[in-house]
TrEMBL record:
Keywords: Signal. Residues 1-17 form the signal peptide. Residues 38-203 form the Outer membrane protein beta-barrel domain. InterPro entries: Beta-barrel_OMP_2, OMP/PagP_B-barrel. This is Porin family protein.
């Protein structure tokens, strides 16, 4: 997560250094003056992410260590202007993620470690609340809900953790909150943002053995993620 935030700040600084005269000066040249008056417009995003799990237990004890690894995301954006300061946005995206789960109480890595890789197709519907535009800069907040399909869920596998197969539900629901800034350049609008994603319900498919050391003590397993998206319109 720290690496992603540092990257976000670095790219923002580079953008400011490169385009500072026209965008961040006291009296900038106003770029794309009528851009936000469009009823509908489109874009795409690229970005980075870190996914992990929020784990609740039936009985307190030694916790599972969940390490989120950096992933990559890409997708499309469709925006519908509802008001001068409010947009409805649909941002379907493809997310590549992985997590490393380390279970306590085992003496060998075969049993103790599970590499949980995921390929997500996300379908979020969000509202974007923008502030008043100042020159070529416009901060915003956004939030919404979505459904996510995990193509690597292993949900149809008959094997479980006893065969080194970690299983989760293929479909999950989540909500998202975030903030960002619109930067208006001569030919495009650039919108970096930071977002948090929080799963609604339990995603875990439990092992056949109700006393399984991998799933038996888990009350619920929910996705959490930090996304850094760089959107171009």
């Amino acid at each position: 997560m720290k690496k992603l935030i540092v990257l976000f700040l670095l790219i923002s600084s580079v953008s400011q250094a490169q385009f500072g005269k026209s965008t961040f000066s006291k009296d900038p040249i106003i770029n794309l003056e009528n851009f936000d008056k469009q009823r509908v417009y489109w874009g795409y995003f690229l970005g980075f992410s870190t996914f992990d799990f929020k784990t609740d237990y039936k009985v307190p004890g030694q916790d599972i260590n969940v390490k989120g690894n950096s992933g990559f995301n890409v997708g499309l954006v469709g925006a519908l202007r509802l008001h001068e300061y409010v947009e409805l946005r649909f941002e379907p995206g493809l997310y590549y993620a992985s997590r490393t789960l380390t279970y306590p109480g085992f003496t060998n890595d075969r049993d103790a470690i599970r590499e949980v890789k995921a390929t997500y197709i996300d379908f979020p519907l969000m509202l974007k609340f923008s502030s008043l535009r100042t020159g070529n800069v416009r901060p915003y907040l956004l939030g919404g809900v979505g459904a996510t399909l995990n193509l690597s869920s292993n949900s149809k596998s008959k094997d479980d953790n006893s065969e080194q197969k970690f299983r989760v539900q293929p479909w999950t629901n989540n909500y998202t909150f975030g903030f960002g800034i619109d930067l208006y350049f001569e030919y495009f609008k650039f919108s970096p943002s930071i977002r948090g994603v929080f799963g609604f319900g339990d995603e875990l498919i439990r092992d056949d053995d109700p006393n399984s050391p991998w799933t038996g003590n888990i009350e619920s397993l929910k996705t959490r993620a930090v996304l850094i998206n760089f959107t171009f319109h």
